[in-house]
Amino acid sequence: MSRRLFPQPLDLANGRVDMSHGAGGRAMAQLVSELFAAAFENDYLAQGNDAAMMSPPPGRLVMSTDGYVISPLFFPGGDIGSLAVHGTVNDIAMAGARPLWLSAGFIIEEGFPLADLARIVEFMAGACKACGVPLVTGDTKVVERGKGDGLFITTTGVGVVPEGLHIAGDAIRPGDAVLVSGTLGDHGIAVLSKRENLDFDTDIVSDSAPLHDLVAAMVAAVPEIHTLRDPTRGGVAATLNELANQSGVGLILQEAALPIRPAVRGACEMLGIDPLGVANEGKLLAFCPAERAERLLAVMRAHPLGRDSAIIGRAVEDDRRLVQMETEFGGARVVEWLNGEQLPRIC
Amino acid sequence: MSRRLFPQPLDLANGRVDMSHGAGGRAMAQLVSELFAAAFENDYLAQGNDAAMMSPPPGRLVMSTDGYVISPLFFPGGDIGSLAVHGTVNDIAMAGARPLWLSAGFIIEEGFPLADLARIVEFMAGACKACGVPLVTGDTKVVERGKGDGLFITTTGVGVVPEGLHIAGDAIRPGDAVLVSGTLGDHGIAVLSKRENLDFDTDIVSDSAPLHDLVAAMVAAVPEIHTLRDPTRGGVAATLNELANQSGVGLILQEAALPIRPAVRGACEMLGIDPLGVANEGKLLAFCPAERAERLLAVMRAHPLGRDSAIIGRAVEDDRRLVQMETEFGGARVVEWLNGEQLPRIC
């Protein structure tokens, strides 16, 4: 798009998004050209068509999509833009896949400051670069003031699965070990503390991070991994219940083995919520045959994003498909699958 | 997901979406299982993972995404659900590609009637079936009352480009003929009439339709096609200005050749808007060498979605990259690239 079309550059310092920025005309072209295309610059976007064209590597492909409606848009340890990259990269990685391409759809509320949009786009473009995954195509819509909430982003990712891998939610077998890649609940508590202006003693920051590189190391060392999943919305409790049902097994956790930061544990106690129900955005659960668990743990701990990894439980035969927790005092309780409305808009 | 998890089925007649339906717990699982998975049923969704896995055919892939924020959600000739399928299928088809897979992200406002959601999902699933394109993965988020506007949908499509085709926005050459596949402005005027409760003399309905089958016939007969694009937001005026800039050519239209329904022309006159600035959702513009134009026109007219096709102009050398219209009285005027804020939320 030739610059002479837009006599005045966008006012990124003081300007605001208006309805014309989503209406398909000259103003939208300027926003796309001066803000989005400039930040995400790559050969695919430079094609300038409504669809980007790519040559895929050989192998099976995976595709995943997620909408991001997190409130607030900026939170300790992250922002909606980098989260929208990490979250979708992680969903691709949970198939054992290498992420190849991302797309993004922006739904912006009229009046949203261009300066905030520019910051978010910069963070998002930085996350794409850090992940090595180009944003190949995108879309912008604007809704009237009061019909949105600042900014929603929907990202979609496509990735390729290495030969020989068969990682899926229905593949957990009785006897499998359950591993987690680090501390639980950091993201949800960080977002909640910012949203509600809570003043916890220590600084809790989101764990938002891309896990594809950790996964690549894991599957290279232990291709026998049965299942991977990131415990986002609904936390570990929802994810484990979902997987127990999908695989038709029971799951038993050791309470003492769960890595939870004292600050997060304290915040959860204060708020009266279970850390197992709190969202994570840079952690994964892994299931593998018990005899491979120590090797997998060692590989995970050797990675910067898996330093606090732990073996936290095992899969068992159980027609009721219950998730249970063995407490430190020798008892056991069922880990409920909550409705989760206590923590809305956490991603 | 086993049904026994949800003792009460969703109340699709009188229920409403609440925050728990987006929170990652049991309520969300029920909504996904009983509404989305039931309607879109296919082998990919049945995999039940956050990412769907597919084996692509050989060839280059294209990827495109669009957010749909149309208001109202139901309009003459369509609804947001089928539109979200057609629009993205069409963006894929404009690369000459065959659409393979779709994903969808739903952002729902708290309190939205489940009955409306179910209707929209049914229309959307019907459109997927009619297009032969499965929805392989999806996501649901819920925002508080007053932070959205009923329903927004973002769809992403992946398609495969047949060997030997090189269709792109920068490929128009001076001398090319410009064709359109039918009447202009129907979608925008249909949506506007419903939204503003305008009572036009005749019933104008949206042209929302999937164009991939028409495109397949076109590229089979005339593989020399240089460029295809669907004139959606901003209408023909915005699309032609965009393409003129991308290809570095001028474009000259013949006013008398433009197919516009009298009812649409009348409505535009009444509203004081130019039909060339009004959105279409089932029309395409095609550019091909002049000597192949008659053949292409015949193929387009032979297809049910191209019956009213016409040759409407030509590309010329023009460093200014202007789009001009030759009027019926022998004059010429520049077709402006409007900001387009006169028709917000048209898709």
Automatic annotation (TrEMBL), chains A, B:
Residues 48-161 form the PurM-like N-terminal domain. SUPFAM superfamilies: PurM C-terminal domain-like (SSF56042), PurM N-terminal domain-like (SSF55326). It holds the Pfam family AIRS. Residues 173-320 form the PurM-like C-terminal domain. Signal peptide: none annotated. CDD domains: HypE. InterPro entries: HypE, PurM-like_C_dom, PurM-like_C_sf, PurM-like_N, PurM-like_N_sf. It comes from the Bacteria. GO terms for biological process: protein maturation. Belongs to the HypE family. This is Hydrogenase maturation protein, carbamoyl dehydratase HypE. It comes from Caenispirillum bisanense.
